[in-house]
Amino acid sequence: MTSTNANAFTSAVFPVETMDVPGGIETILRGGRHLFPLLPRAFAGVRRIGVIGWGPQGRAQAGNLRDSLAGTDIRVAVGLRPGSASAADARAHGFSEGDGTLGDWLAVTAESDLVILLIADAALAAHHREIFEALKPGATIGLSHGFLLGHLREIGGEFPAGHGVIAVCPKGMGDSVRRLYQQGEKINGAGINSSFAVHADPDGHAVDRALGWSVALGSPYTFRTTLDSEYRSDIVGERAILLGAVHGIVESLYARFRLAGDAPVTAYERSCENITGPIARTVSRSGLRAVRENLDPAGHDVFDRAYSATYGPARDLVAEIYDEVADGTELRSVILAEQRLGARPMTEIGGSPMWAVGDEVRGRRAGRDLPVDAFTAGVFIATMTAQIDEFAERGHPWSEIVNESVIEAVDSLLPYMHARDVAYMVDNCSRTARLGARRWGPRFQAAYEQIAYPASENAADQALLDAFATHPVHEALAAAAKLRPSVDISVA
Questions:
Q1: KARI N-terminal Rossmann domain: which residues (predicted)?
Q2: Domains contained in the chain, CATH given
């Protein structure tokens, strides 16, 4: 990591500030509802925002933008494909054909000054040309991750000339983006952090437009990245610690604990329940080191051996995923899988034995204070650190590293997994993330079972432990924590 402020930006509308990070500073925008009166200035030249798609992000972003811009002359409309099954739900959330806030996706595109593309990745790959052709002159294209950039590179395509291209990428699932925004009406501006990127800026207003979009989503803080960097970190993270790796961890740990003689409920509590519950809460509130520090001396040894044995195999897999994302292999596998599956429903992964006891475990939570399992903690923290180190080595800014590797996990995804389970999350996320988790989760599981767990019988690697104890990520997380709203997501 360099010591320069590589992600520096200025704003003619919002008061930006700098945040100290390891080796330097980063420019950020601290969000909050007190900034909503500035949104018309940020969206100068924008009178209509079209949100294309009604998946979890589409539903959340359309609702947040509409509510934040209430009382202004900027209207938010949702565009759906003809015959979309989502139309009824969009109407139930207050969008309608009668007032012009719900319509055909190409018609909404043609009428909008900012077109936010939130349809499924495969649909975007198949239909982006139609959308580009429908754009009104000078309209800005908005994205919430860089999949389309990767696809255009694969096919030798480009974004249309004369149009701004910006991205605002919430570091959490759509339900979290909406739920925390609604909680933020009463609790210190709660929300999900976002990155932003400017890929094309023909009129010179792209930065403020992107910042306005992020503020309107309720982001507590916004940091700058590039569309390429965001795409890589987002796709890798989905396949690693955010989804794929965590599925591989809990499946492998459950099997390990069962083989050691634990009853099904106990094995579930020591694996899945531990990661989504006490481990996630500890990291969220107190950081990575606190997970180990809060253990007793005997737990330190167990954690250390699990961490030492897991870090290397996990780092190898994260590096492999990163390489395949960077060279387009992972994107091609997603497109091929979508073409192969077509409209057929994807099989679910929640049928393995461990998920049968999930309801019983969740029913036992009342009045219980489940302790952190030292072995599980070592495996999970080692995997998280492996992703952190891979991102740092590849040159990602610290805000992106801690959000994609830690904050998104413990403040957005793991709380939902705790409310339901990991398998439920895998089976109900976006198809791109789902395909990635199904591909890489078993790879992580095999690496843990075949390499890490046998090696955990050996003494801990003191050099690895020293590197963890003094890791710059602790400083970066502490800086980010100062911007964290004083609220935990409420998951029904």
A1: 29-229
A2: 17-224 (3.40.50.720), 236-481 (1.10.1040.10)
